[in-house]
Every structure is written in structure tokens, then in C-alpha cells.
Design goal:
The structure holds 3 protein chains of 3 kinds. Chain A has a 5-stranded mixed β-sheet. In chain A, about 40% of the residues lie in helices and about 20% in strands. By secondary structure, chain A is α+β, with helices and mostly antiparallel strands. In chain B, strands 1, 2, 3, 4, 5, 6 and 7 form a 7-stranded mixed β-sheet that branches. A two-stranded antiparallel ribbon of chain B has the order 8-9. Chain B is about 50% helix and about 15% strand. The longest helix of chain C has 20 residues. The two termini of chain C are about 25 Å apart. Classes of the chains: A alpha+beta, B alpha+beta, C alpha+beta. Chains B and C meet through α5 of B and α1 and α3 of C.
């Protein structure tokens, strides 16, 4: 059974998480310097997030194009952020798919530390 | 005013400046250093290795081409690497494979995403003297079974790995491993003791000066003689537990990803072999007069040259498409690299054979160099996926549904 | 500066986890296997000092940081890391956790910059290093200026080493800190190993001759290390006792200030001797002489206070 019940729950958790990331100066500086934009396409349930140096967009506001597109299910995202699944293994097994200039994927460290509490507060079982 | 937005142009003639510069430097090295020695290296003893040639290629960055910039990488992507491989192979595919095999061995370390593992091994390639590595997959009994993912469960007689405290212990016998004789370390694929290979396949990074490692005899090969295909014997070889790539049982996914990433480079090598044969034929047919006309003016010869040229151009476009896809996709795609290699490997054999035919007796005599190209042309159909293995991979892609493309957490 | 020309015991509690110990061992092996025969040719322009042909198979080069391509700068930083991790003077656990294989690349200098000195064997192995770090002040300031930026040793020891050397024609751009005076711990015991620190010291003197703007040197060192070498070559050192140095735990060298007090590096300062060219020439003659007693000759012929520069 999927860990996330609906899009609203997923948007709340992942949206909060990426807002934290967008407050990290190192991350946004790198994003700006590389001219990078990123779409995170979650499925089961659907949850779309767009990151750019100018900010974060979600749902219907997410454009159709970006420098990098990262696709995964919400369950896979949960395992990654909880540290139970390592990104290289996730990519090698196809649970995470990345399209675009993959050499420029930025650091996501600040959000890792906050995910467990954010997910728990929204009723996502670990 | 109506504004028409032009779609991005497909351009396979112009590359980013750093890629262009890298290719130009490798081309010069291939023409001035490698090509003049190619015949000599082919006719040397089968265990002869030209370190002087390799050191010069290393200084250009050929052992660091796929590495991230923090390890001295060239930042040219797989597109840049494949262009370089074609240039090298047009001079000598054996030399190309020395560097290709090193890059292949670096693959698992890169795919691991393990910063400590990367820090312990990848800086080795940053010195002024060449360091090489090798990728040890094939065992005495298990060969193709390890290249076709669905057959891995049938592989037997494999190198075994067992955990002992904070070490892993290896036992096994790898054969015809390019660079085994001269490598600093090996990416070794073995199976956890008592576990079926498809579930227990594991990759370890093994320094080849570890106690218990023996470098066995070098194979006396038909072609690619500038690189050495040797054996590696592991007798109770111990490596630290942190030398595992990913974790126990992650070897199969690493192997598949590694193969998909490498196939465009091999396709580029085959394209280089074919190009060498083609250029030799073009030059000869533009000078040789028979029947009162230049050979190229004879219709059957013209037809052959045209088909050879079209094949080489098509092979190049396919490997560039595959390399571009790998540069822009994770996990690396399966279809495009397999198609590129399947086509290019066959083109190399056909074009080399046609060229020998066009040159007549000169194509059959060693000193003219073309018989070497013909022998070399058969190499790529053996390593990194035979046509049979590639056909299975491609056909699998043809019938794969969209559901199977995406992830499916329920099955894991 | 912390020197490791004298052997320091690495406290047992600093070995860290077995995985960390293996990581340090692997880094030491890695950097010991790398060769940089092309380093000299890669230097832009002429080096500030060059010592070669002394019959010991060693070449020592000094150059400004900007003269060296980044690739070789990383090689030097890797050598430094490997040596200081082996001695326990850099935090092994931190290096392991951050997966470091070289000291972090310094930020581009806003002030004077750094002069690096490396000693290499004939086959390009880096076996010794010494750094001369210039003031971080973008513009020269009086040595007793309240707004001048401190040199690293002053910041770590929380001490002002320069004010007492203030003079009308002397600014912060005339003060340099000696840092990371180190030789390869894997060099086998013998003549070459003994000569490395003297190569570095001689190069330091030659740089002082080449750059006569260097009037004051500071640093921190142990009594059996660089303090001894500097006194021998004629520097009248003022050593400050009883400081309480501190670095944040994000800095690799924080751990060196946790050594027992008697083993800790002490901050020092000195004016550059006015007869530096003569001292450099004497030292070069002795080191070049080789033979059985060259080190005794150095000890007996040099040393003692000299007239100061500036």
C-alpha cells in the first residue's frame, strides 16, 4: 500500500521540504550559477514540483520544461529522504530516472535532515 | 507580428568547445604517436606493452576523461569520450581499448556514489604517470551469462565472495581481462557464497598488489594486440569491506548500468576501425589505375565505396546519439547504446573486409596494415556484448511496455 | 605553523574507527604512489627559488600560488593532507567523513598570497613542503593597526605577534607566516630523508633573498621542529609561551591543539636577519657539501643572533 494517500498530502510534505532547500544559500547560489532548473515528478500519487533560482512552483504551475527532470514514485522518494535507499542504487535500478544535464545535479543535504519530522507530522508512516 | 519559434537544430558536426579541443588533441596524438607505432605493436610479442605510448595518452587526460572535475576529469561527457575513442581506434583499437578498459573499471566506482571509495581510488589517475585499471567480469566458465541479464542466474563457476569480519574474501579465476597484467586495481564481479548469481552478484574494488592475487598468462590474440588480455587468479584475497560497490547483491544493476554506459564507446571504437579501413580504401582507389581508369571510376568499386562510407557515417551518428542519451539520462539507456554497438561492430567487419578486397594483394600482406585492421574488426563483436546478447537486449526494449519502463515499488 | 620534522606520537585515541584508520592508510599509499615529474615545467614564469644538483636526487622549488596550475596545487594539498593525517595532527575522522583526498583548496587570495615550496625526488614524488603565507589584508597596513587582519597563527593562538615589530616602513605586507613545514613520513630513514628539511629551509632563505619585502616571519612550531631549524639558520625567535590555541572542529587542524601542552606548537615571531644572503650561501655550501658531517657543520657554523633586516 502506498505511503502517501493523496496529492495534497504529498504536495504538503515535499513542498515544505523543498522550500527548506530553497532557503539554503549554498543551494540557491549553485542553482543560479549553473542556470539550472529542476522538475521533480512524483507519481503514486502525482506531485509535481519545479525549482529555479527564483523559487518553487507546484502542481499546475509547473512548466513543461526544465534543465533536469527527476522522476520517481512517492514511496521511492520517501525511502531516499529517510536514508533507507541510496541514490546510486535507486538510479541504477531505475527507481529514479533523471533526464537532462545530469552532471549538474545540485546538493540536497539541508532537506535530508528535516524530512523525517515533516513526513511524520503529516501522518506519513515510516 | 508572427513569431515562429525554431526548434533546436540537430547538429552532429559542431560540438562544445571543450569537446572539440579534446577531440583535436586526441586526434593529433593518434596520428603522430599511435598510428606510426600501430603495425610495430601489432607484430610485437603478445605480452609486450608500450607504456611510453600510454603515458602520452594519459597526459592528454585519456585516463581521466569520464571522471568528475574534482578528480581531474576532462568535463567532455560521453560524447567527448566517444569522439576520442573513434580517433584512437582509427589509429589502433588496441590502444583505444587500454584507455577504454580503464574507464570501464572506473565506472562502478562512479556509479557507487560512495565519496570515500571515490576518494581512495580516483585520484590515482591525477598524477603525471599513467595508472591503469581493469574490469574483471568473465570467469573461466561464466562468460556471456554475465552479459545477458536474464541469464545471470544460470552463471556457474563464478568468482566467489564471502564476508569475514570487516573484510571480504575472494576466490576465483578471471580470464581475458584487458589491462589485467598492467592495472593498479580491478573492479571485480563475483557472487556471494551460497547465493544465486542474479541475487548475489557483487562488485568489489581490488588492489592488484593484494596478497593472493596472481596475474596469469596473457592471451595471444588475433587482434587488439597493443592491449593485453590477461588472467587474474584470486586465492583468499582479502579486501576491506568498504571496497564493495553499493552493497552485497548490487552487482547486477551496476553491471547493467556500466554496460549501457560503455557500449557507445565500443561502438565508437568499431567506427574508428571501419573508418581506418575506409580511408585506406579511398586513398588506394583514388590512385590505383586498372583497366585504364582509376579504380574509383569503375562502377562496382564506386558502389562499394559509397556503401562503405554510408555505413561509417551511420555508425558514427548512432554512437553519438547513444552517447548524448547517456549524458542526459540516469539510469543510462539500454536501447540506443545496444543499437549503436550492434550496428558499428558489424560495420567494422564488413567495411574492413570490403577494403581488403579493394586493395587486392596489398590487403592481404602485413606491411600494408590492412590485414591488421581486418583482424581487429572482429574484436568488438566479442567484448561488451556479442551481437546475440545485444539482440536480446534490443528486442526486450522493443516489447517493453510503459508500465515496465517506470519503477514499480510493489515488486521490490 | 605546525612542523612534523620531529616525530610526533599520534595519541591512541586519535586512531579513530578501523575504517578511518584504513582510509588514512589508503590515502597515504595513494599520495605516495603519485608522481609529478611535470610540475616544474608547469610553473608559469621562473620559480622564486630552485635547489638542484646537490647530489642527493632532490629538487626543491619555490613559487607563488598563482604560478602553479590548479592540478598541481591539488597534488600539493593532497601530499599535505596525507602527511598530517598520518601524524594525527589533522582530524582523521573529519577527513574520512568528508571523504577528503586533499586539503581544501584555499580561497583566492585577497591579500599578498602564498609562496609554496616543494621538494621532489628525481621521479617526481613530492617528499617535502613548506608554505609562506602572506597577509590577508588587501591593502598594506601598519603592523600595529587595530584594523589589520590577523595571520592564521595569531587567530588560532589569539595573540598579536606583529605589533612589536611596527616601524615606519614596515607594513602587514612585509609579514609572512611559515606553515605546514613537513616531509614525507614514508621516506626510508637515511640521507635523503635527513636532507629534505634542509632543502626546505634553504629554499625559504632563498625566497627571503629574492623577495626582500619579507621582513618579519611568524608561525607556530614545536621546540624540536622548525623552531630548532630557524634558530640554527640565524633567526632570533621570540616564542610566546602559555597561549590557549583553538580552532573550530570544522578545521582539520583543530586536533593539533589538543596535544599535551609540552607537545603543542608555540607561536613565534622574528625579524629576517639582514645578512640573509650570506646565511643562505653558507647553508647552501654546507648542504651541497654532503659527506658524513654536513649536518654537524650546519649546526656548528650557523646559528646565533644576527643583525636584523629592516
Amino acid at each position: 500500500m502506498a505511503l502517501y494517500e493523496n496529492t495534497a498530502q504529498a504536495e504538503h510534505v515535499f513542498g515544505t521540504l523543498f522550500q527548506i532547500l530553497m532557503q539554503d544559500e549554498t543551494f540557491t547560489t549553485r542553482l543560479r550559477a549553473s542556470g539550472l532548473t529542476a522538475r521533480l515528478i512524483h507519481t503514486k500519487p502525482d506531485c509535481r514540483i519545479f525549482l529555479s533560482p527564483d523559487g518553487l512552483l507546484m502542481g499546475d504551475q509547473v512548466p513543461d520544461e526544465s534543465s533536469i527532470t527527476v522522476s520517481m514514485s512517492c514511496d521511492t522518494a520517501h525511502s531516499l529522504w529517510m536514508g533507507k535507499l541510496m541514490m546510486p542504487a535507486a538510479v541504477a535500478t531505475g527507481r529514479v530516472r533523471i533526464r537532462g544535464k545530469i552532471a549538474k545535479v545540485p546538493v540536497l543535504r539541508p532537506a535530508f535532515d528535516r524530512y523525517p519530522e515533516i513526513a511524520a507530522s503529516c501522518g506519513v508512516a515510516s | 507580428m508572427l513569431t515562429i519559434e525554431r526548434p533546436a537544430e540537430l547538429n552532429f558536426d559542431t560540438f562544445p568547445p571543450e569537446v572539440q579541443r579534446f577531440r583535436d588533441r586526441v586526434r593529433e596524438y593518434a596520428r603522430k604517436v599511435v598510428a606510426p607505432r600501430a603495425l610495430e605493436l601489432d607484430q610485437e610479442a603478445h605480452d609486450h606493452f608500450a607504456w611510453d605510448v600510454v603515458h602520452q595518452g594519459h597526459r592528454l587526460g585519456l585516463t581521466r576523461a569520464v571522471l568528475p572535475k574534482e578528480f581531474g576529469g576532462m568535463g567532455v561527457g560521453l560524447v567527448g569520450v566517444t569522439l576520442a575513442m573513434e580517433e584512437l581506434a582509427a589509429a589502433c583499437p588496441g590502444v583505444a581499448l587500454v584507455f577504454g578498459a580503464t574507464m570501464l573499471a572506473q565506472g562502478p566506482i562512479l556509479l557507487s556514489g560512495d565519496p570515500q571509495l571515490q576518494a581512495r581510488f580516483l585520484p590515482l589517475f591525477g598524477g603525471d604517470d599513467a595508472i591503469l585499471a581493469c574490469n574483471a567480469i568473465c570467469d573461466q566458465e561464466a562468460g556471456l551469462d554475465l552479459v545477458v541479464p536474464q541469464n545471470v542466474r544460470h552463471a556457474y563457476g563464478m568468482t566467489t565472495i564471502r564476508r569475514d569480519g570487516d573484510e571480504y574474501v575472494l576466490n576465483g579465476h578471471k580470464r581475458v581481462i584487458t589491462n589485467a597484467t598492467v592495472a593498479n586495481f580491478a573492479s571485480v564481479f563475483g557472487t556471494m557464497e551460497g547465493v544465486r548469481p542474479d541475487e548475489g552478484l557483487t562488485c568489489l574494488i581490488v588492489p592488484l598488489d593484494s596478497p593472493g592475487v596472481t596475474r596469469g598468462p596473457v592471451a595471444d590474440k588475433m587482434g587488439y594486440r597493443a592491449c593485453l588480455g590477461g588472467e587474474l587468479l584470486f586465492e583468499d584475497v582479502r579486501v576491506p569491506a568498504e571496497n564493495v560497490v553499493g552493497g552485497e547483491g548490487d552487482g547486477l544493476s551496476i553491471l547493467v548500468a556500466q554496460g549501457n554506459m560503455a557500449r557507445p564507446s565500443v561502438a565508437a571504437i568499431s567506427t574508428g576501425v571501419a573508418r581506418h579501413a575506409l580511408e585506406t580504401a579511398i586513398e588506394f582507389c583514388g590512385q590505383r589505375v586498372q583497366g585504364g581508369a582509376l579504380l574509383r571510376e569503375h562502377q562496382m568499386t564506386a558502389r562499394k565505396l559509397a556503401e562503405m562510407t554510408a555505413k561509417v557515417d551511420a555508425a558514427r551518428l548512432l554512437y553519438l546519439r547513444a552517447a548524448d542519451k547517456v549524458d542526459n539520462s540516469l539510469p543510462p539507456p539500454e536501447y540506443e547504446p545496444a543499437v549503436a554497438k550492434l550496428f558499428a561492430d558489424q560495420v567494422a567487419i564488413e567495411v574492413a573486409g570490403d577494403a581488403v578486397g579493394l586493395l587486392g594483394s596489398r590487403g592481404f600482406i602485413r606491411e600494408y596494415g590492412l590485414e591488421k585492421v581486418l583482424r581487429d574488426s572482429y574484436g568488438a563483436r566479442i567484448y561488451e556484448g556479442t551481437p546475440e546478447a545485444l539482440a536480446l537486449a534490443i528486442t526486450d526494449c522493443l516489447y517493453r511496455t510503459d508500465d515496465e519502463e517506470g519503477d514499480d515499488d510493489d515488486d521490490r | 605553523m605546525t612542523t612534523t620534522t620531529a616525530r610526533h606520537e599520534a595519541p591512541e585515541e586519535r586512531v579513530g574507527s578501523p575504517a578511518t584508520a584504513r582510509y588514512v592508510h589508503d590515502l597515504a599509499r595513494l599520495h605516495g604512489s603519485l608522481r609529478y615529474g611535470g610540475l616544474e615545467d608547469a610553473i608559469l614564469g621562473a620559480p622564486l627559488a630552485r635547489i638542484d644538483g646537490l647530489g642527493d636526487g632532490l629538487t626543491t622549488l619555490s613559487f607563488w600560488e598563482w604560478q602553479l596550475p590548479e592540478r598541481y596545487m591539488l597534488a600539493i594539498l593532497g601530499f599535505r593532507l596525507a602527511q598530517f593525517l598520518q601524524t594525527g595532527l589533522m582530524d582523521r575522522e573529519l577527513a574520512h567523513r568528508l571523504a577528503l583526498f586533499h586539503e581544501p583548496l584555499p580561497a583566492p587570495a585577497r591579500g599578498v598570497g602564498t609562496v609554496h615550496t616543494v621538494t621532489l625526488t628525481g621521479d617526481g614524488r613530492i617528499v617535502g613542503y613548506l608554505g609562506l603565507v602572506g597577509s590577508p589584508d588587501p591593502e598594506p597596513l601598519p603592523l600595529d593597526s587595530p584594523v589589520r587582519l590577523g595571520l592564521p597563527v595569531e587567530v588560532a593562538h589569539r595573540v598579536d605577534l606583529l605589533s612589536e615589530y611596527a616601524a615606519p616602513d614596515r607594513t602587514t605586507h612585509n609579514a609572512f607566516e611559515i606553515k605546514r613545514f613537513v616531509r614525507d613520513h614514508q621516506l626510508p630513514r637515511g640521507e635523503q630523508r635527513n636532507r629534505v628539511p634542509w632543502h626546505l629551509m634553504l629554499a625559504c632563505l632563498k625566497v627571503g633573498v629574492a623577495l626582500d619585502e619579507i621582513q618579519v616571519i611568524v608561525g607556530d612550531a614545536g621546540e624540536r621542529g622548525a623552531l630548532r631549524h630557524l634558530r640554527l639558520v640565524g633567526f632570533d625567535l621570540k616564542v610566546v609561551e602559555g597561549t590557549t590555541p583553538w580552532l573550530p572542529r570544522s578545521e582539520l587542524m583543530w586536533i593539533s591543539y589538543e596535544l599535551p601542552v609540552e607537545k603543542r606548537a608555540k607561536p613565534f615571531a622574528a625579524l629576517v636577519p639582514a645578512n640573509l644572503p650570506e646565511l643562505a650561501a653558507m647553508l647552501e655550501t654546507m648542504v651541497a657539501g654532503g659527506g658524513a658531517g654536513w649536518r654537524q657543520a650546519v649546526v656548528s657554523s650557523l646559528g646565533g643572533p644576527a643583525r636584523m633586516r629592516g
